[in-house]
Amino acid sequence: GEDVEQSLFLSVREGDSSVINCTYTDSSSTYLYWYKQEPGAGLQLLTYIFSNMDMKQDQRLTVLLNKKDKHLSLRIADTQTGDSAIYFCAEKGAGYKLSFGAGTTVTVRA
Amino acid sequence: GAVVSQHPSRVICKSGTSVKIECRSLDFQATTMFWYRQFPKQSLMLMATSNEGSKATYEQGVEKDKFLINHASLTLSTLTVTSAHPEDSSFYICSARAPGTSSYEQYFGPGTRLTVT
What we know:
heterodimer; B: mainly beta; 7-stranded mixed sheet; 4-stranded antiparallel sheet; globular
């Protein structure tokens, strides 16, 4: 089965880089995702990575995947106040089901 | 881009009553929709997978007679919480997947906050 774990909180100064970490257990995972949830809202897909990739960069977002350690990270460069949110790591299982981590609450301080 | 809506966004109901939540794909046809439940400051837990024209597949531990799911058309799935109790209070989120799309494309609705008094 799938089990996704994340650290729960991250505080970062505006303008610095944020790094959010995630570990997963399902070795057959094909797609891994990062979602952003703002207060009272649904989930916004930020980026995803296929399991045969090591890195993916999309503007301020960089995803690193270490398949050996089943470790996924999301780096947000030049963090802004609008980046304050909960970030969920998720892996795709059978039948397009997604298993989510507990979410990392990112707080950006001035 | 693909948009998924939910209605209502917030609902308060009395214990023992039933509540229906709608999930609509606005600009695409969704053969598969997913219903999630999220408790405060917790992750999303998949409740069921809904395929158009067939019975929903429920996750282990989810009571199918309590959480009725209907996916009668390619753009609408409904979740009915029957005989609601305070412990059913939660944030319910749906997502939708379009046919023929890549595996990563799953679009989420804005969620429905249910409070049972």
